[in-house]
Amino acid sequence: MKVAILGAGAMGSALTIPYSEKNEVVLWGTEYDVPILEKIRRGEKHPRIDERVAVNDILNPDELDKALNADILVIAVSTEGVMPIFEQISDSLKDQVIITLAKGFIDEGEILTIPQAIWHERKDLKRNIAAITGPSIAKEVAKKLPTHVVYSSLGDRTLKVVKEYLETDYYRISLTHDIVGCETASALKNVYSIAIAWIRGIESRKGNVTMNNLKGIIVTQALREIGTLVRANGGKTETVYDLTGIGDLIATFRGGRNGMLGELLGKGYDIDSALKELERRGVGVVEGYVNAERAYRLAETLDHKGKLKMEELPLLEGINDVLYNGKDAEEVIHDLF
Amino acid sequence: MKVAILGAGAMGSALTIPYSEKNEVVLWGTEYDVPILEKIRRGEKHPRIDERVAVNDILNPDELDKALNADILVIAVSTEGVMPIFEQISDSLKDQVIITLAKGFIDEGEILTIPQAIWHERKDLKRNIAAITGPSIAKEVAKKLPTHVVYSSLGDRTLKVVKEYLETDYYRISLTHDIVGCETASALKNVYSIAIAWIRGIESRKGNVTMNNLKGIIVTQALREIGTLVRANGGKTETVYDLTGIGDLIATFRGGRNGMLGELLGKGYDIDSALKELERRGVGVVEGYVNAERAYRLAETLDHKGKLKMEELPLLEGINDVLYNGKDAEEVIHDLF
Known about the structure:
- The structure is a homodimer.
- By secondary structure, chain A is α/β, with parallel strands linked by helices.
- Chain A has helices spanning 10-19, 34-41, 64-67, 79-90, 114-121, 138-142, 156-166, 179-205, 212-232, 237-240, 243-252, 256-267, 271-280, 287-304, 314-324, 329-336; strands at 2-6, 24-28, 57-59, 72-75, 97-100, 105-108, 110-113, 129-133, 147-153, 171-176.
- The first copy, chain A, folds into two domains: 2-177, Rossmann fold; 181-336, N-(1-d-carboxylethyl)-l-norvaline Dehydrogenase, domain 2.
- The first copy, chain A, has 16 helices and ten strands.
- Chains A, B: It comes from Geoglobus ahangari.
- Chains A, B: Its EC number is 1.1.1.94.
- Chains A, B: Residues 2-153 form the Glycerol-3-phosphate dehydrogenase NAD-dependent N-terminal domain.
């Protein structure tokens, strides 16, 4: 098969490695990716995955059309970039498999998962879209370390294709139809990761005590609330308690940008100084921050529709209070507890 | 109420602190506890919790009878010690609440949880027994850091008593009737923690790569199998996906004796050299090791009864192979994956 990966960030670039085992792979970069494309062309390692990508061709920002004759198109940009890219390619799409991997919500007046936002534009593509969720840190995928992810799609042919052509012995793929549940859970994972990381900050604020009991409480509560939101949004409980929910949480909850933001908030930074500090450190977009407000609005909508009650989501309420209402993280934890 | 804690180890001693908020507490020590009892009498901190215990009286090994006039008796010895202590007190028991906190299985020909083993001896006490599960590292309980545990019992009066007299604002208590599920899950958590810790060992064997994706996979699989075993043993799925299962796993999976044993096995030690190394480091009984063989036998029994199939438990099979059949942990992970 021909696979085109749209976006040369960490995950898109890492996927060239398993995908090239059975397929011809091209990597297209956005304007932001130009310095990376140049490195790749010079045969250097990709700086964010510390490995060389495995591609048959590299395409510049102005060569997007050349990517579109692929059988499988992977939209590998961050949540904010997905719909702008999709608008550009939408008219040329026929029956390709389209894979999305950003973990966030899209605001189209109502709060949608990424596949829902695409269906909104092109209902006829409903069965062509697959989403990747589960524990997959890009660097580890690139190093061929054991990884097992979930590809979800409403289309049986789509699931068959991704399993047959994209699975390798180090990059294992499970399949499910619960694409809305997978995408809801993985977007929420980023949001709740912020609160889980508060505890690290609180520990250091208190002079490096360890508060593992509290970590157990907060992770359990996060998973309860993710379960509530996933079910209310039409997804399945088992998605939360498998690779997509727990698996991803375990793989990522000690690191990442959401974790850095959460830790600063736990230390007592207010949101503005925390974001400034991350900027100073050169940390880019914090997906969990952008998505927390959307998660909260999704919850409110689901409450209005009678699908859940906001009182079932005290931790989400607390996250919203810390990120948008100037409340202190330790105080939120105290009230919650 | 009068509370008697039988066993002056880390957890029993830590519990004196929340328990003494509303009750009169006495702490009885076994022969193994004599040096600790002496320290406590001299007003020193308990070495394993780094805090002073909060007690009205300290009882020596030969003063067990003095403890038995309590309203609440806490059997706070390790799994192996529970039944010997119970035999000693059984004849004097009337209508006390009896609390057990060891996390293991008991071998009475068939493999039983601790409450089941006690019921086996004294059916009339079925509703008097409560078990403590969930994330509770003793040191953190002793330091009054936020802790939320689960007390399970078949007896409503028992649940009412523990909630009313033992809960404090830093030591929160949830209640459930699923005592068999709680005890099965928490005993299994120790067993599966060994396998989760293999990965740390494998990471260092491979030159300190990080394998967080693999951690996500193994924790997810561990919880799946714990769920299968809990259901087959008569417990509830939600017990696994709440404080007792996930919460405890999150609080403890990076530390503890099970983790130390698992890490050595992951590094490539065989079981004999790993146990010798732990002995050299002065590490006591590894509950997960003792219980792994019992967990495996429980699984086989449940298979024979048609309640589950051994094929559903590949990780337990792998743990058994590493601990008892000389197989290498990395090879097991490879086969599993």
